[in-house]
Every structure is written in C-alpha cells, then in structure tokens.
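Example: Retropepsins domain-containing protein.
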Amino acid sequence: MSVIPSTITSFPVYIKIRVNDQPTEAIVDTGSAISIIHLNFLKTIHHKNFIYKNHTCQTANSTSLNIIGQIKLEIKIKSITTYVVACVATNLITSILLGNDWINSNHVHLYGDQKKLTIPDQHDQLISIPYVEPTCINYPALLIRQITLPPYSQQLVDIICQINNAHNLIFEPYERHISKFIFIPHTLLNINKNQAKVLLINAQNRQQTLSKNTRIGTISRDATYTMHATTQIPTTHNSILNERHQPSTRHYNKLKSRAVLRKRDNSTQGKLNTICHHC
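Written out as structure tokens, the predicted fold is:
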C-alpha cells in the first residue's frame, strides 16, 4: 500500500462537510493517496456494509496507521453529493481525511493563497468552498529524550508537541503501551514552549526503555470536557497492586480521579441509529 503522508502539517486544510448526513470538519490532503475515517467517528454515524480488512501502513513521518477495514461514505459539501470508499483507522488524528482518491475523482482544486477549494456541481458550475479553522485538532505527544523506567516505578517525563503555548489541553494516552504494562493517566496539560510533563507508570517487574520521539499520546483542544475516573490496569498480572507497592498505587488512584475523556456533549441528541456490527 502507498505510504500515507503525515496529516499533521503547519497549515492543514479543513472544510465543513457532512458524512452520511453527520456534520464534521475534514482535512483535505493532496499528499494522501487514500481517504481515511476514524473508527470512533464512524461509530457515531449511520453506516452499513463495513468490509473488514486489517493491516498497517506507514505515514511519511514513520507513524504506523492501523487500518481495520473500509467503508463507502456519502460526502456532502453544500448542495454537492459525492462518494468515497474510505479506509477505517483506529488512530487517525482527525475525524476524516479526504485524499487524492476523492480529490481527483471529483475534480477538486485547492487554492492555498485564497484559502478555498473549488468543486464542480451537477451542472459543471464551480462551487467555492472556504477553508475553516478546526474546532478540534489532535496533536501527537512525543518523548523529548530516551527514558528508562525501573521495575514497578513511575516517572514524570518531558513530552513535546506542535502547540507553542496553551492551557487546559486534553491529553489522551496512546493505547499501544497498555500491552507493555506501561500506564499513562488521562489529564489536562499546560503547554509551555511546545513542552509539558506526563506521568508514566511501569507495572512490569523489569525495566523498560522508550526511545526518543516515541509517541505516548495525543493532545487535543475541545470545547467540552467530561470528567470521570478510569481504570486501565488489569487486576491480574499487575504486581504494582501488591501490598509492597501500595505507595505507588495510592498515588495512581489519586491520578485516576482527575482523568479526562474528550467527548462532545450529545445530551440534546436522539439515539444514533448505527447498524453496522463489525465496528
């Protein structure tokens, strides 16, 4: 499969669209061969005929993109209806990305200097679509330097991201570290000169090393925060919960109580009618 470029750039192109009649903001990426939708976003929209096809592909910045299948989607822009067969990913940094498969088949042209794109309607009249500022952007959080975590230990580590300075951003840990018994609490972060600190917990009985630029999570902006407690540590295989490690456990329990999950407020919406059982 073709290499997919990084979807985090200095000036990503966002437009307002409707995916299967669900409004969202999409990245339009002329460097990506394919279109991709995030699994979490797919679960919020009416869809069917999900095709399971599990594989991993590599982005231009060497980040692995976990593809679990593909699905045909209806993409509406103003009065124009288009279609695309999109790959479904579990770790995309946005809700949906429209790549060259959609761009070329619909004769879309991007004008960066004018901050707009054009797309022909059913009468071949060019419709101008303005770029928008995204309401929510996800940024990867990377380790600044290599770290070694001793057995049954916790450590504050320095991370770097593309945000210069900001307050109360949502940090969500990268799930792949759970399989290694490295646990990272959800939290709110203040970013200063592109840097912040995050707590890592090694629940293994051996030391573990993470290399420089390892992705440990995602930092995002969102308008609504839902506070709740989360428990990621399994009760079996986890010696950090033994009596001899109670100090670490008590500290971790304190951290759990301020966990954060990025979640939009759907309190005024009706129950979503999703009919696909594969995802």
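Residues 14 and 134 are 7 Å apart (CA to CA).
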